[in-house]
Amino acid sequence: MSRCKKTLMISVLPFPAVVRHDMSMKYGDHQFIWVPMLNDLNIDRFPDLLEYTDMLKDIVKQQHVTGVVSRLDLETLVHAALSEEFPHISGPTVESCFLALHKFYSRTVLDPNPIPCEALDLDSPTLEEDANLALQRVGLSAFLKPGLGTGSEAIYKISRKTELLPAILDIKGALTGAKFNPYNPSIHLLRNFVIHYLDTKKYPLALRQVIVLEKYVDVKMKVTVDGYVHKGKVNHLLTTESVYFPSRWDNAAGYYHPCSATAQVKDDIVKIFVKVVEGMTALGFDNQVLHGEFFVKSSGAPSLIEINVGRLGLSHLQVCLRQGDPVRLQLQLVSGEGVDLLRVGECPVFLGYIVPRSSGPATDYIDFDKVDEISREQGVHVVMKVDKDDQITMLGQGGGLGDYVARVVIRGLSYEESVEKFKRFSKQILKKQEWYAWL
Fold first, then answer.
1. What is the extent of the structural domain holding 425?
2. Closest Cα partner for 371 from 379, 383, 389?
3. Who contacts 128 (Cβ-Cβ below 8 Å, separation ≥6)?
4. Does the keyword Protease apply (predicted)?
């Protein structure tokens, strides 16, 4: 075994003890350094991403850290800063990651064929006038979403002009509240970090609390693409179909492989993905994994939704593989090692997420006996993220995936059969039916 590498593990959300233990056992050639969560940094005031980064810089120096791993967009932004500060740490640049995180700049800088959109500054003294002009340019129907949002949170469909201002004020209230929300990070969290690491003359909206008004797209399918960049080369790994529930406003609850889109559509999506990522690599994105989301419009034409950087583990990729390990892949990228081959299996695989709708003891929420029973069914595997002694505290606010409590993997069935089986299992696992998202 090679000499143990000291790997800094960044996570602004709780990382369950069981996951920490499993990773430490499975990847014994890495000594993981688990850092405090971002919202634990300052007790008496709103957290500051630059202070958090400075704290991690001290850890890197004091403990001679050799690599950094991040699992979500916000953490990868910090990883990028550490990569810029320490030449021996492999990783992307802040600019390339910020363009992925900032939904308006993703559209206007990275997207080769962007959906019509406008940025609205929530602190503008003429916000209502700005919004009405933006709606005239974009047209109805439209989507309204936070400029830095992830996890499908706080997204509003605007069908009438009268719906626009109330939706804007709702999002403004959510973003200016005192509570730290990793899925809709406030500009107050990022401002000092952005001033320090980004060219704000080039990206002036980086300093503003922005929401994005975007043309509504008539969608028949959502498709995701996973890949990574290693030594400047873009590598495509997997194309999957998002589980699509038209009755849910957020529409996504999991993934299915193989994707049912035509070969031409999938080829077009991968070409767009590669083009977008090449734009990021030109700005220094390297040695990191990433995940693209795409709409397939009614016409059959694909359209970029967003690019997400980091995503440690890529759990839907994990369950679709017949050879390789996506976590090991990311560890190899940040350690400057050669990359092992990952091969996708041919068996149909469905991955569904179970998301909390309340907080409290896990035993009040989940029927663990049913979990064991379901896990014994052939072709089904339930991966719990919490155990009987845990408290559920992080909610999937607004209907997004949020901090899910379990994954259900179903193998060998068609899309329709998998979805129905997942719905049934979700009802069995959840103790209270009002917590079931698809009633």
1. 348-439
2. 383
3. 165
4. no
